[in-house]
Specification:
The chain is an alpha/beta fold. It has one domain: Rossmann fold (3-Layer(aba) Sandwich), CATH 3.40.50.150. The protein is about 40% helix and about 20% strand. The protein has 9 helices and 7 strands, in the order H-H-H-H-E-H-E-H-E-H-E-H-E-H-E-E. The protein has a 7-stranded mixed beta sheet with strand order 3-2-1-4-5-7-6, with helices on both faces. The longest helix is centred in the C-terminal third of the chain and has 15 residues. The protein is globular. The relative contact order is 0.15. The N terminus is likely disordered. Bound molecules: S-adenosyl-L-homocysteine and calcium ion (CA).
């Protein structure tokens, strides 16, 4: 248990060998070149563990394609793995509102975004997510118009994001939450959890409990990457 909490590894329920097999067999060979580039550049960053796990990315791309989603919101851009993945997957007239407090990491990937000719799909907003979502909700035209949302920042606010997303995303739309198993610490005795992981662990535990009983959505928890919860608005 303790070693798991130390490793902050992605691929919670797998042995490292099984995860490697899965990545090498199914994910990396099909990963678009630009995403591979972002993944490699990001791996040299001090905060590289924040990036979306590539197997989660593959699942998100499948969801986007399955339902031909066009209008999306993303909270938490960092170096853009999930953002570029979404932009590459949605149709040419698709739109993404991408929100992050920090523009620097996104700026690094802007060359890649320009090269991929996907910039026209992206509206990057440098802001706190909560205030941006509230601004969007102030305009009635934005209610129920989004097909998809990916939430990957600021775990303390997941419940607040959820309430706002239920207003912004249409009935039948999909909302995905990342890091909902918080390196497996949600199932560990508190004393085995590293101090730095404890606050978010608690927020995630509370969110998961609330979320699991939310009858407004159909949900499924997928134990890949750092845990990803898929929700379909009823
Ligand atoms: N989805 C990204 C990873 C996001 S990491 C990827 O695939 O790489 C989390 C990001 O959330 C960080 O870039 C951080 O700057 C941003 N963030 C943290 N708190 C935030 C807040 N309150 N509002 C908006 N963005 C926030
Ligand atoms: Ca994440």
């Amino acid at each position: 248990m303790a070693s798991l909490s130390n490793s902050i590894s992605k691929g919670l329920l797998y042995s490292p060998e099984l995860r490697e097999y899965m990545l090498e067999t199914f994910v990396y060979p099909r990963e678009p070149k630009l995403l591979k580039e972002i993944r490699l550049i990001t791996s040299n960053q001090p905060r590289c563990l924040m990036a979306t796990a590539p197997e989660n990315g593959q699942l998100i791309a499948l969801l986007l394609k399955l339902t031909n989603l066009k209008k999306t919101i993303e909270i938490g851009v960092f170096t853009g793995y999930s953002l570029v993945l979404t932009a590459l997957t949605i149709p040419d007239d698709g739109k993404i509102i991408a929100i992050d407090l920090d523009r620097d990491a996104y700026q690094m990937e802007l060359q890649i975004i320009k090269k991929a000719n996907i910039e026209h799909k992206i509206n990057f907003i440098q802001s706190s997510a909560l205030s941006s979502l509230d601004e969007l909700l102030n305009e009635n035209d934005n209610r129920g118009i989004f097909d998809f949302a990916f939430i990957d920042a600021d775990r303390v606010s997941y419940q607040k994001y959820h309430e706002r997303m239920l207003e912004l995303v249409k009935v039948g739309g999909i909302i995905v939450y990342d890091n909902t198993l918080w390196c497996g610490t949600v199932a560990m005795p508190e004393k085995c959890v590293k101090e730095t992981m404890k606050p978010n662990r608690q927020h995630i535990i509370e969110f998961n409990k609330f979320f699991a009983s939310d009858t407004r959505v159909q949900i499924f928890q997928v134990p890949i990457g750092d845990g990803i919860t898929i929700c379909w608005q009823l």
